[in-house]
Amino acid sequence: MPLVIQSAEDQVYAVLRDEILHALPPGTPLPLTRIAEHLGVSTMPVRAALLRLEADGLVRVSPGRGAVVAPLEADELQEIQAIRSGLEGLAARLGARRIDDRGLQRMSDLLGVMRASAARGDLESFLPTETAFEDECYRAAGRPQLLAQVRSWRERADRYVRLALDGTPGFEIGYSERLLAAAVAHDGPAAETTIRAALAWTLTRLAPRLDTGAGDTTTEAAAR
Questions:
Q1: Which contacts of 29-35 are long-range, i.e. CB under 8 A and separated by 24 or more positions?
Q2: How far apart are CA 123 and CA 128, in angstroms?
Q3: Domain 8-69, second-level architecture
Q4: pLDDT tens across 73-106, in order?
Q5: Residue ranges of the chain that CATH labels 1.20.120.530
Q6: Radius of gyration of the chain (CA)
Q7: One CATH from 3.90.1150.10, 2.40.30.20, 1.20.120.530, 1.10.1740.10 for 74-212
Q8: Distance of alpha carbon 61 from its chain centroid, rounded?
Q9: Each residue's pLDDT tens digit, 169-202
Q10: What predicted TM-score, i.e. pTM, was given to this entire model?
């Protein structure tokens, strides 16, 4: 397999994107020179990476004020969930129709891990397991570009998911159970309906919280 050589810009972009999605709160300053010194690069790849992140909706850049991590907003969440609904609904419908016995067994095993993680209240185990569970179905669609888009928009939603589950999370596995049942029956429309309903359910619970800024409110939300 040939080596993949990343440019400095690509590496800076990947590092900052990961930190924004999983660690840095909204409004965190992203000083150009400090980031460049920390990563051992010039300011040029950092500036280019920040512009890419701005295009992704993860960074806000203001003339004279620099860059900050973009705020969490109800309008953006609505747009993200609408796009995910289309992409993941299609992936679920195609995947459920085509998934084989090995894929179904893998989904069943992962659902068991999700139940155990939920019982422990272990968010850091639950989230990646749920992602792997869904991807097992989506991968069966045989559409690698579709799966790549699903993963990209799911990552965009990750900051919102973690806000929803901040504090004492409520772990919702009912939609996952329904997705597995649809996959076992090779019922594409049921799988699509389940995914779309799960995404809509999360949106209805998060949007009011973003509008009111109720950061200390515990929300029973699906880890989606």
A1: 29/66, 29/67, 29/68, 30/59, 30/66, 30/67, 30/68, 30/69, 31/66, 32/66, 32/67
A2: 9
A3: Orthogonal Bundle (1.10)
A4: 888 889 999 999 999 999 999 999 999 999 999 9
A5: 74-212
A6: 19
A7: 1.20.120.530
A8: 23
A9: 567 899 999 999 999 999 999 999 999 999 998 8
A10: 0.78
